[in-house]
Design goal:
This protein is of the alpha+beta class. The protein is built from two helices and two strands, in the order ββαα. Strands 1-2 form a two-stranded antiparallel ribbon. A hairpin with a 5-residue loop joins β1 and β2. The chain is elongated, with a radius of gyration of 27 Å. The chain starts with 22 loop residues before the first strand and ends in a 21-residue tail after the last helix.
Length: 96
Amino acid sequence: MRSEYDFSKAERGKFYRPLDKSYKVHIHQSDGTEVVNHYTLAEGTVLLAPDVREYFTDSDTVNDALRSLIQLKEKVPARKYSRHSSNPRQVAEKRK
């Protein structure tokens, strides 16, 4: 950055809008008119968290991974109940 740029009164994230919410962009034209563009995510759009995005760089890798997971789910029988330890634990002392 050049030394003549002054960011001392800048506000971090002032124009940040989360992508999962719809938002508007107002464009002021030189002739005094204003154009308003509305943006929303297309139906079916899925947003990946940044830590997940490191592993999946495009739609094909995400779809392949999910298809593999679906195949595994179909092969492994679902458990109705959680497994309990064979040795029950005593959580309180017995009264005499």
